[in-house]
Specification:
This protein has six helices and no strands. The protein is mainly α. The longest helix has 24 residues. The two termini are 16 Å apart.
Length: 141
Amino acid sequence: MTYSAGMASRAYNSIGAQTQVAGASPHRLIQLLMEGALDRLATAKGQIQRSETVNKASTIGKVISIIDGLRVSLDHDVDTEMSENLENLYDYMNRRLLISNINNDVLALDEVTSLLKELKEAWDAIPDATHFMGESDTAAV
């Protein structure tokens, strides 16, 4: 999978999780974005079940922002086909989130959660290149 480190960092900073970003590798930034989205999806599901409409709308909005951050972080120059497929998947997820928000549809949230978990598992299986570099090399990442 291909992502731009700068875009991922700005997207993650925009959701208020600055503490872990400072020293994180680009690989870790994407993991943090995905973890943040999954945490908020679980929160939104509970808010729908408790009829917390205002909170649910805000939480789903944050998930949409995170997924947009993942989408704009894609590096289309590295693998055009994969990045286009991921962009289409992120667009689909956001459309499902909008439907979930409008209709209080827990099944749409569950679908997005499942898709994002699958992506995160694939991403987590990719070794972080900074683990294999010497200290002098990590500064260039």
